[in-house]
Predict the 3D structure of the following.
Amino acid sequence: MENADRNTAESAISSALIKELESKGRLIVAPVGNSMIPLLRPGKDSVLLERCFTPLKRLDIALYQRDDGLYILHRVMSDKNGVIVFRGDGMLKSDPPVPESRAAAVLTGFYRGERFVSAQAFLYRAYSQLWCFTLLPRTIGLFLWRLRWKVKLFIRGRREKKCAR
């Protein structure tokens, strides 16, 4: 699929999800992409989002609209004068600043399999503090996480070649 077609399809899906969020006030979705690894694993976890009624706080995870119209789920790193800087847990660089009015929803918890983890839980808050405020362990953790994925893909590729023989 061409890039323009993919963006159009993603925009249509995003619009439908935002309409459902506005009508019901909450939404459960499965995140796509690797930007929130290791907290949120694509294809395995789902998130509970609720509409924003109060100002976002540092370390909240929020769904916001980028300049190109796509919706992204990232963590609030700073909020100054109504301008928010977001960053994914799996990213080393922050996103460009956006106005607070672009935030559509805030994460109130997530499902890891059948188990619900509240955003107010002690272990979740401890993870948020440790992961976001310690650059060296974060860099090492991301390196090891990505290395793990590369090793898995390499082993899977070798198995497929053996089966093809």
Summary: The first helix runs from residue 3 to 24. The longest strand covers residues 71-80.
